């Protein structure tokens, strides 16, 4: 419940519940600051669409329930153009409505992940930092909350915004010769896409501070030691095929179960304990006594190896 709003030193008392819809999300400079309520302003879409180049391609396999997002601007190491930012935003919105999905593989074209923002965007939108940050933070927050188990396949390099993007996925798999770096310090900025907040949660205060303050680019073995990546592909192994197999092993269950597992774990990471327990109970209750559970009982699956 929103108790009060302050305007020019005066307090306006609000007597309606936030959830009633009577109170609208607070907006600064045209940008919503809530991932759940954010709506991309048309003027921002128009502004960023002018910086073309590359694409973000989404494919969905209905049979396996696994989607793939490919960052595709290999001539610039898959750096994000304005158009690509919009493509990613729209692709994630589409995946939110994919009811049969179970998994998502995030990868870059031509055996490299992403080198951050395209120089053309960076140099021409120096006055649009808040708009870009709002759009990309929203997109990556939604990505992290998708009811899909997500994996970022890091080949080649993942630098700056590219490194931030990997932190929005549930897992990170790295090719043995790949490199990753939160290099924003060299550009006189910090992370703008939410990667700082997520990195602290992933690897802790000290390690995140080390990586951001030095801007160092680390290899796969160092990333594994930091706890930044979950698996390093073996030398000589096809990284894409290895990542697909790794993800498939975690998406073997029925979509309703896999999506419930992801929802349960995501809720536990962002909500208080009681809220998380309530959410877990509701998810469990929907599955208990359901057709999948009854079929498993009939087959006595619990006691089979």
TrEMBL record:
Lyase listed as a keyword: yes
The primary location reported for this protein is cytoplasm
- The reply on keyword Phosphoprotein is no
Q: Keywords on this record?
A: Cytoplasm, Lyase
- Subcellular location as annotated: Cytoplasm, Cytosol
Might you give the EC number(s) for this enzyme?
4.1.1.94
The record, for PANTHER family, names: ENOYL-COA HYDRATASE-RELATED (PTHR11941), ETHYLMALONYL-COA DECARBOXYLASE (PTHR11941:SF27)
Q: Which family does it belong to?
A: Belongs to the enoyl-CoA hydratase/isomerase family.
What protein am I looking at?
A: Ethylmalonyl-CoA decarboxylase
């Amino acid at each position: 419940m929103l108790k009060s709003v302050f305007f020019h030193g005066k307090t306006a008392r609000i007597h309606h519940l936030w959830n009633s819809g009577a109170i609208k999300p607070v907006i600064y400079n045209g940008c919503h600051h809530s991932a759940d309520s954010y709506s991309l302003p048309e003027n921002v879409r128009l502004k960023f669409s002018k910086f073309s180049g590359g694409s973000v391609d989404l494919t969905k396999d209905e049979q396996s329930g696994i989607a793939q997002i490919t960052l595709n601007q290999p001539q610039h190491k898959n750096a994000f153009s304005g158009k690509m930012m919009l493509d990613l935003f729209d692709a994630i919105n589409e995946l939110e409505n994919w009811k049969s999905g179970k998994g998502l593989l995030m990868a870059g074209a031509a055996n490299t992940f992403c080198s951050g923002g395209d120089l053309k965007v960076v140099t021409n939108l120096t006055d649009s930092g808040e708009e870009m940050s709002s759009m990309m933070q929203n997109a990556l927050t939604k990505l992290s909350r998708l009811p899909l188990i997500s994996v970022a396949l890091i080949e080649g390099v993942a630098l700056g915004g590219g490194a931030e993007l990997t932190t929005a996925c549930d897992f990170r798999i790295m090719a043995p010769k790949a490199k990753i770096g939160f290099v924003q310090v060299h550009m006189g900025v910090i992370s703008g896409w939410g990667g700082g907040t997520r990195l602290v949660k992933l690897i802790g205060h000290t390690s995140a501070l080390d990586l951001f303050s030095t801007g160092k680019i680390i290899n796969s073995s160092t990333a594994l030691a930091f706890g930044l990546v979950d698996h390093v592909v073996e030398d000589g192994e096809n990284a894409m095929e290895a990542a697909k197999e790794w993800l498939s092993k975690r998406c073997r269950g029925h979509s309703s179960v896999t999506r419930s597992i992801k929802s349960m774990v995501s809720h536990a990471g962002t909500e208080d304990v009681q809220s998380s327990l309530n959410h877990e109970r509701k998810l469990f209750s929907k599955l208990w006594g359901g057709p999948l559970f009854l079929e498993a009982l009939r087959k006595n699956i619990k006691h089979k190896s």
